[in-house]
Amino acid sequence: MLRKKTNGVARRPQRTSILSEVTNASVDRRAFLRGSGLAIGGLAAVAATGGTVTQATAATAASGDVKRVKSVCTHCSVGCTVEAEVQGGVWIGQEPGWDSPFNLGAHCAKGASVREHAHGERRLKYPMKKVGGEWQRISWEQAIDEIGDQMLSIRDSSGPDSVYWLGSAKHSNEQAYLFRKFAAYWGTNNVDHQARICHSTTVAGVANTWGYGAMTNSYNDIHKSRAIFIIGGNPAEAHPVSLQHVLKAKEQNNAPLIVCDPRFTRTAAHADEYVRFRPGSDVALVWGLLWHIFENGWEDREFIRSRVWGMDEIRTEVANWTPDEVERVTGVPGSQLERVARTLANNRPGTVIWCMGGTQHTNGNNNTRAYCILQLALGNMGTAGGGTNIFRGHDNVQGATDLGVLADTLPGYYGLTAGSWAHWARVWEEDLDWLKGRFATMQGKDGKDKAMMNLTGIPVSRWIDGVLEAKENLEQPDNTRAMVFWGHAPNSQTRMKEMKTAMEKLDLLVVVDPYPTVSAILHDRTDNTYLLPASTQFETYGSVTASNRSIQWREKVVDPLFESLPDHIIMHKFATKFGFADRMFRNIEVNGEEPLVEDLTREFNRGMWTVGYTGQSPERLKMHMENQHTFDRTTLRANGGPADGDYYGMPWPCWGTPEMNHPGSANLYDTSLPVAKGGLPFRARYGVERNGENLLAEGSYTVGSEIEDGYPEFTMQMLIDLGWDSDLTPYERRMIEYVAGYIDQRPETNTDLGEQSQSGPYPSDFADKIGGVNWKTDLSGGIQRVAIAHGCAPYGNAKARCVVWTFPDPVPVHREPLYTNRRDLVEDYPTYEDKTFWRVPTMYASIQKNDFSKDYPIILTSGRLVEYEGGGDETRSNPWLAELQQNMFVEINPRDANNIGVRDGADVWVEGPEGGKVKVMAMVTPRVGEGVAFMPFHFGGHFEGEDLRSKYPDGADPIVLGESTNTAQTYGYDSVTQMQETK
Ligand code: SF4
Prior knowledge:
Strand order of the largest sheet: 5-4-18-17-16-6-7
Largest sheet: 7 strands, mixed
Number of strands: 35
Shape: globular
Mean pLDDT: 92
Strand content: 5-15%
Structural class: alpha/beta
Bound molecules: iron/sulfur cluster
Helix content: 25-40%
């Protein structure tokens, strides 16, 4: 089954300079591929670092009429352009995009082999179902009919919440949007996706600090950083091409690279300063840095005065974190942290980068806020070279989050309040009462009926509990009885032993994916289990959002292979089966069964005002892809050409309508630019005053603002009060009146409204309603347009806040993990009390009160490998990648290994305190410190020592199988977002 590889890739000593090998000469495709697979972290080319790699000149694999098609790699959030060579409808070759400002002709091993992902022999080729324990081929019609009938029956007996629609970071933006809309039409908020378990704590923490929960700058902007601080991230393996941007700053600016991680990663190998700290002690580490910063007066006092609220409360908490206490909790000597703090203070602006090492903890939201506060104290926000560059994971996890494939929001982070539903009902031109009727109601503990429509659903991290928890303990009418895994690898989630039980208890299990995934084989189900073949993103087209918020347009490379179908067609099939297709697609052209992708973009353009997904029309997005070469590789701004002045991919917010031609916002919260050119202050999101203190900015505003101070978010009333409402066009005013309910007839964009355009005076009962229409609900975009014309940000101008009074820990504090082996710290830094939230009971103290440290003294952490992605089903099915990494393994420190008698290369059992255990190969290495073990999370197909290969449908088993680290990983969830605790 496995092929011989070139000598032990995983253990080969690291080469320190791929640069030196590839900068001497141009490389052909074969050398390029080889280099990309074997280079440090898979970094393949170095154009941005000053190398001399030139475009491969090797002849294409075939002569004749070869079409070049641009798509975007599907394996991480960097967004590298893939140029596919297609002949006669067959994908025959590929090159990295040389014009793309993101990858500049580079690919990592995964990107360089995506053709195999689409053409993969081991894909799921046709719909299948299990009958008496055997896989049988069925037709799409039979599949949709049988699944649909069972779902409708469950809906009748248990309500719509008993069907869980688990979506994907692999959807395009259009598919993600449609998926959330689909769940709304089905009548449930039990819809979520992988972002829950990768960056939900980032989104919550960052959005609650300064407005938006996303990367503030970009990979390219790191070129301008004077210092780079990476904590809990390993981009050399997880985001390989991003490293060329990091290394450019390191080499060109002499920017010190500081890497904080419990494990000496391939990224750490590039660091000027490596800080090894105890897993789960991030807050203590950051407060340890701030202790030195405050002690020495290195903070940016003017920035804090004018743009930050609550830093004094942080000072009070930080005062407790003396160097001795920090060393006790983190293991890092005070002298090292003083040196790091001094380096950050002396090299501004610096950027802070984090990934899942910081997010996946029971207090993950505290970690993400602590990182933000570090940047606020240093005055590193809102400036090129600074910011929080939060590297997202999957190719469209940012977009799927923005488009609301989440249990707690509608598209655009609109939440689940009545006002949010009313907004989207208007966008969809749907009868709000009909939508309400799709959802269940439930009697609350107070005896009053609660509309499930307004309650957060069960997050993906807890779907198991939706099935297994006693019904009376759930805050929904009945248990989860049907699960749809649509582009989701279950082995990326913890508690896999319980997951197996949950899968077996379900009435119905449906997998929609290009590959069968571990969902097909983990359990011992014999019937009512379906596999539906989805197409890859190379077999369809649409937009995708990179980590930096830039939106790119993929072209279709080939038609769907085998009997696979793109996600949006499958959604249309289900909508038809359930009888709401006509309503759901009333403003979307449907050709045969395929909804027109551009119409989907246009529909979300009409509703996503909150985050500025409104200006990026399909036409503008396609124009950017065609003119990639015109964009600056550092600023991302087009220099001449058709996109002149735009930022590449119009990173959101791209305000107003497409006709407004807003360029996008490359670096968030940058007041040195007018809002019309991408500048922004911090968002006014939490009111204007707190405990008598002003939450709005003081004396800080964007260039050209006519309000030269802080101001709240814009409403129609504010325009009236400022006398700016006269700038509204007649259409804009009529639309505002329509949104307020003053007129029934929805105005058409180009209608000559003549006399009707005259405003008020409105009857008193309407004056408030019209005044209350705001920049988020105005469907015309007029309020945004007028605010920006006066130099103001539609969302207001406030201070960032260091204290989130609505969170369990308003000031971020250190809390020991649930299964901590440092029992001496539990009394000082206990976890939370047990509580029920997101519909499920959640344990904290009831676990931590038990001492597991004697039997389980080693901390298990997990992470990525360069060769694989996510649950790994696609990449482990790809022969190019499978050859490079054939064995699941555990890294263990030599001292621990010697103490427990483990030899390098031996098979060992790794067991967690909840009883899950995995049989893997030992890699004895000082990469991990004493007391810490590491396993990659991409493997699946083995379970507690058993090889499950025979359970896959014939020919659809991945080449490489292995144990899932998550079989041994344990319970534990973030106190705000239900992020799992795997680090
Ligand atoms: Fe680029 Fe990421 Fe794809 Fe590698 S996996 S080619 S870094 S997008």
